[in-house]
Description:
Elements lengths: L7 E10 L3 E7 L12 E4 L2 E9 L2 E7 H6 L10 E6 L18 E10 L4 E6 L13 E4 L2 E8 L3 E6 L1 H6 L10 E6 L1 H15 L1
Antiparallel strand pairs: 1-2, 1-6, 2-5, 3-4, 3-6, 4-5, 7-8, 7-12, 8-11, 9-10, 9-12, 10-11
Amino acid sequence: MFTGLVEETGTVTELRDLGDAVRLTIRGPLVTSDARHGDSIAVNGCCLTVVDPRGDTFSADVMRESLDRTSLGDLKPGDRVNLERAMPATGRLGGHIVQGHVDGTAVVIDRTPSEHWEVVRFTLPSELARYVVEKGSITVDGTSLTVVEVTDDWFSVSLIPTTLADTILGDRRPGDRVNLEVDVIAKYVERLLEKGAQR
């Protein structure tokens, strides 16, 4: 489990084609400081398993399913990525419950800067729209954010200077694709209500 609080931005150093998968190597001095084989690290919100930690880099195998359903397939060497280690049982849940299971992707529509924050609008896939509510939580590229406004086909968030500086969201431009994870609690509630109605 993750919290959506990005620990550092790393850099993609290599992408090796494995046929039905890609071996992704990323430099991230903080998240690799205690990384071991088998650990989980979220990369742009996608939970990956460390297979080869070496110095300040780690490698992870990204299967075709993940490449097709997330924006990880868009990465190239030199790209910056958001990184977060799995939360320890004694850690603080500073963001919200994030599984690292990407539900879909969205596209940046526009950005509206102001003196102290920036409002960013994203497209909202129709199959995810029912889980997104005003003032609710959503994860964008692994960053826990609060929804400012939502319609049937887009939502917006406000980014404070810290988020703009310390995550890749400050780099995202209109047309860029991002990973989305909706609040898992909403999905569980929906499932329970469906089962209850069937009874």
